Each structure stands twice: as C-alpha cells, then as structure tokens.
Automatic annotation (TrEMBL):
It is a peripheral membrane protein. Pfam families: ABC_tran (PF00005). Belongs to the ABC transporter superfamily. Transmembrane segments: none annotated. GO terms for cellular component: plasma membrane. Residues 17-261 form the ABC transporter domain. Keywords: ATP-binding, Cell membrane, Membrane, Nucleotide-binding, Transport. This is Amino acid ABC transporter ATP-binding protein, PAAT family.
C-alpha cells in the first residue's frame, strides 16, 4: 500500500485539521470530554495546560495514533470513517489512516530517532519505505531539510553523537522530509537544556514564518505567545479558554488559566 499525498491542494479555506466534540477514554478514564479544534491552513495552534490535561492525547488523536470514542476528525475536509462505537470505535479505512498520518508529521519530546541509523538515513527512512519515493530525490530533499535546520554537516553522524538540540532538529528535518500538510509538535523543547532549547525554538519560529500549519503542545509560554495564531488552554480534557495568544496571555478570563499562567510564567 502506498500513501497518497494528494497532488492538488484543497480549497484554501478548508482547515487542514478539524476536530469536533472529540471524546477519548483509556478504559474507564475519560481524558478528552468533548474537544473542538480547527487548524486552518498556514496557522499555528498552540495547546497549553497542566500535565495530564490531555494535550498529548489530543495531538495523538489528530493523526490517529490513538482511537477516540466519539466525535469527528476531518483532514482537509475529509471525515475519518469509523467502524464500531465507544471503546470499540476504530478507523475503518487503512488507506485513509495512512494518508492522514503521513500528512500530519509528529515531532516528539524525546526525538525518537532510530539509533542504528545515521542522521541522513533517519530523515530518508519514511519517505523511502512509507511513501516509496525515489531514493535520489529523497536524499536531495533530506539534505535540503537538514540544511534548513542547520545540521547538514551531521548527515553521517549517529544520533548518539549529537546534542539534544541537534537531535531534535534532525527529528524536525525527518518530519519535514515527509512534506506533510501539517506538523504536530509534542513538547519539542521539554527535554532540552535552556541553551539548546533556543536553537529548536529558532527553527520552529522559522517554520511558522514560512506559513506552515502546525499544532504545538508546549510548556514554553513565550514560544506559544510568539508563534501562535490561536492558543487553546486545556483543563482536565476540556477547553477552558481559547483565543488569540495576546488575549490569552495578556488578559486571561478564567481563574484556572490565570492560576496556570502565574505558576508557569
Ligand atoms: P498531557 O500531555 O496534557 O500531560 P496526556 O494526554 O498525556 O496529558 O494524558 C492525559 C491523561 O490520560 C492522564 O491522566 C494520563 O495519565 C492518561 N493517559 C495518557 N496516556 C495513557 C495511556 N496510554 N493509558 C492510560 N492512560 C493514559
Ligand atoms: Mg503530554
């Protein structure tokens, strides 16, 4: 099975990702209790909230790494087809899952590079094996994206030979090499020392300036305030407050958000 990235871009006003009334449980534990999220093309959405509020779960539901029990997920206007219901609900169409997952590339807190592959091989792996792209073309793209994140000279190094900041930049190049419709970041700077954090923040800001569609889970309120078009504050599986970052950070309405911000900023 080959994942298709559709050749023609859909109408500009169709969001890349749209989530409606999403509910997600792990067994008896309801983690998302009816969440809506819209990521218009070219927008950066940041997700903030306390540990355990459901941020990672929401991100993983977006690209179908996790099943969900109720609600709709649309990728470029195309609704995910489900079979079963409740805890037995799963996506019905494997080709659709692959198409969505390959178009929503995830960058994880712990980088998750393959330790037995060089940096170049890491970046080339999925376009070669999942998308079955031409090796020479993929290598050229991989070098281009590694140059973009500033580590093309590390092509032949092993992940263990890189600093955390370099590994995370390699992971971003790997996500970019899939040429996805959107990038999903789950706390991309949380595992890094402050000085290394900044080199990753710089890359994320450059991607935002390019007009890429991104959803960023972050504990870094400055990053969220700087790059986002829209910020969502999640509390115990529900959206407690959302809006433009100026408003959320400058004039938070909910007591919980005020408490969260005073504890984190
Ligand atoms: P956040 O990313 O905001 O810290 P998570 O989405 O990781 O929160 O987790 C939300 C809740 O779901 C937490 O109570 C967590 O313990 C629980 N949870 C997360 N993943 C699993 C899992 N695989 N199995 C059971 N519970 C989980
Ligand atoms: Mg998390």
């Amino acid at each position: 099975m080959t994942a298709q990235t559709s050749a023609t871009a859909p109408a500009k006003d169709v969001p890349v990702i749209e989530i409606r009334d999403l509910h997600k449980s792990y067994g008896p534990l309801e983690v998302l209790k009816g969440v809506d999220l819209v990521a218009p093309r070219g927008n950066v959405i940041s997700l903030i909230g306390s540990s355990g509020s459901g941020k990672s779960t929401l991100l993983r539901c977006c690209n179908l790494l996790e099943d969900s029990q109720q609600g709709d997920i649309l990728f470029e206007g195309e609704a995910v087809h489900w079979k079963g219901s409740g805890l037995h609900r799963h996506p019905a169409d494997k080709a659709q899952v692959l198409r969505i997952r390959t178009n929503l590339s995830m960058v994880f807190q712990q980088f998750n590079l393959w330790s037995h592959m060089t940096i170049l091989q890491n970046v080339m792996e999925a376009p070669l094996t999942v998308l079955k792209r031409d090796p020479a073309e993929v290598e050229a793209k991989a070098r281009e994206y590694l140059a973009k994140v500033g580590i093309v000279e590390k092509c032949d190094a092993w992940p263990a030979q890189l600093s955390g900041g370099q590994q995370q930049r390699a992971a971003i190049a790997r996500a970019l090499c899939m040429e996805p419709r959107a990038l999903l970041f789950d706390e991309p700077t949380s595992a890094l020392d402050p000085e290394l954090e900044q080199e990753v923040v710089k890359v994320i800001k450059a991607l935002a300036d390019e007009g890429r569609t991104m959803i960023i889970v972050t504990h870094d309120m400055k990053l969220a305030a700087d790059v986002s078009d829209h910020t969502i504050f999640l509390h115990k599986g529900l959206i407690e407050e959302e809006g433009p970052p100026d408003q959320l950070f400058g004039n938070p309405q909910s007591e919980r958000l005020r408490g969260f911000l005073s504890a984190t900023m």
